[in-house]
Amino acid sequence: MYSMMLLAQSQQIREADRIMIHERSYPGLLLMEHAARASTDRLLTLFSEKNSFWILAGPGNNGGDGLAMARMLHLAGRHVHVWLAQDPALYTGDAAIQRDILQHLPVPTQPWTLAEAKAALDSLPEVPVWVDALLGTGVTPPVRGAVAKILRDIADMPGPRVAIDLPSGLNADSGEVVGDSFPADHTLTFQLAKVCHYVYPAAGRCGQVAVLDIGIWPEVIAQLGIRRQVTDLAWVKSHWKTPDRDAHKGTQGHVLVVGGSAQYRGAMALTAAAALRAGAGLVSLAVPEEVIPVVLQHVPEAMCLPGISAGNFKEQDAEAVWAALQGKQVLVIGPGMGQGEEQMAFLLKLLPRVEVPVLIDADALNLLAQVPDWPALRKSEWLITPHPGEMARLTGSREVLGRRLETAETFAKTWGVTILLKGAYSLIAAPDGRTWVNPTGNPGMATGGSGDVLSGIAGGLLAQGYDPTTAAVLAAWYHGQAGDAVAAVYGEAGVTAGRMVEAIRVGE
Fold first, then answer.
1. C-alpha angle with apex 128: 124 to 131, nearest 5 degrees?
2. How far is CA 505 from CA 250, 266, 277, in A?
3. Contact 252/329 with Cβ under 8 angstroms?
4. If you write DSSP's letter for every residue of 40-62 in order, what string do you get?
5. Angle between helices 61-75 and 93-102 (to 10 degrees)
6. Is 469 in a helix, a strand, or coil?
């Protein structure tokens, strides 16, 4: 059994607390103490040389965590100043208990005012570590009132910043950033990562995320029905199938890649090479005739179909491609294909006849976006690999740019296809409601041909018998891993698609 980094929603976290407190008789104050202790220990490790810590504490449980941390930091010998978001009398429940305990220690605790904060800041021998314990998971942005003012007031103040559970101003359940928010260098979250920690643009406000154990029981987490997770090495290793020692090219699958045009000749070489590096036994290409020399120059192992039209695909080419598809395990279509009326006619004639798994990328996706009922063309399992712009065209809405996770999940179910939505922390959404966030990769991979490499890796895995969802999760992982390997040698600016192909290491 592999371990999983699950991604929880705020409602699921509240349910975990409810079960622990009301069904397992576990005191909520004790959970708060565990959270504060784990956060304080991590804070002291991260900033072992720092002496000054300023804690911004709201009136809810997140503020209670911060007030308990203030006590622990003081007892560890650090200078602590607590700034309250509300009048102390408004703090209730466990947060009020922590407020009352803290009154017995010489820790300055006062409501926030900008003037007093500036005066206190000027008197410090060092800039403080800012600790955001204002809101936590219980508030949906945009924030207003006193908290919004605090976030605006401290926007340009110096010092490293740490968020407790999640940066204030983020929606725990999405990747949205709405209004004022706390830009964290580190986020210390409890028991389970939240969606906002790994879905952009919100993830860009979280810095380095650490998931801290606060004692919620595993059997309680198992009751929550969480279907989102971050891919990790344990998952990859548990799902990778090592080929048999007597494997040969006939048992490792045969990919047919369709694409390329007179204008875009290199894409097919990248896709074909990546499919082979991913372990496919054989790769055949259907490309316009002038693309063949380019492919064979770079990928002599590939086989190219004769008889495809010059320049770009035309409707009459569908018959030849259909015939060539017989005996193949997967069709990869779209890279470098172009987007004219002739390519559209070709696509519409071919796709309804295909019964093997299909990976659709690039130009083929943009063509499908012009077909009102394009999912009706599907006669087999499909994996589509759009970037956000292509996804916006497919859905007819630019909302995907701010709500990537919900968009991918909604349309994977609606269309009945697996979606690999590319970008920082690529998302894989399955038709059955499961979702993965891919943590590998770096900004240097935003380079021409990178998507063609990803299509090749996924196509190679599909050819070996992986289902579309597993193939997508593994492909995103190994694609990002290859990009990271190249960046480690050449720097992020030196990441190219060709170098990524050479760095593909599936099964490792």
1. 145
2. 21, 22, 8
3. no
4. HHHHHHHTTT--EEEEEE-SSHH
5. 20
6. helix
Within 10 angstroms of residue 223's Cβ, the number of other Cβ atoms is 13
Cα of first residue to Cα of last residue in the chain, in angstroms, is 18
Which residue is it, tokens 């372990």? 279
Strand pairing report for 129-133 and 109-111: unpaired
CA dihedral 112, 113, 119, 123 (to 10 degrees): 0
- Cβ–Cβ under 8 Å, residues 301 and 254: no
Which of 369-393 are b and which e, b meaning 16 or more Cβ less than 10 Å from the residue's Cβ? beeeebeebbeebbbbbbbbebbbb
Q: Can you give the three-state secondary structure of 404-441, one letter per residue?
A: HHHHHHHHHHHHCCEEEECCCCCEEECCCCCEEECCCC
Q: DSSP per residue over 9-44, as a string?
A: -HHHHHHHHHIIIIIS---HHHHHHHHHHHHHHHHH
pLDDT in tens for each of the 508 residues of the chain? 234 689 999 999 999 999 999 999 999 999 999 999 999 999 999 999 999 999 999 999 999 999 999 999 999 999 999 999 999 999 999 999 999 999 999 999 999 999 999 999 999 999 999 999 999 887 778 899 999 999 999 999 999 999 999 999 999 998 888 889 999 999 999 999 999 999 998 999 999 999 999 999 999 999 999 999 999 999 999 999 999 999 999 999 999 999 999 889 999 999 999 999 999 999 999 999 999 999 999 999 999 999 899 999 999 999 999 999 999 999 999 999 999 999 999 999 999 999 999 999 999 999 999 999 999 999 999 999 999 999 999 999 887 777 899 999 999 999 999 999 999 999 999 999 999 999 999 999 999 999 999 999 999 999 999 999 999 999 999 999 999 999 999 999 999 999 999 999 999 8
Long-range contacts of residues 120-124, Cβ cutoff 8 Å, at least 24 apart: 120/81, 121/157, 124/52
> At 304, which helix (H) or strand (E)?
strand 303-304
CA atoms of 392 and 411, how far apart (whole Å): 11
CA 140 – CA 192 distance, rounded (Å): 19
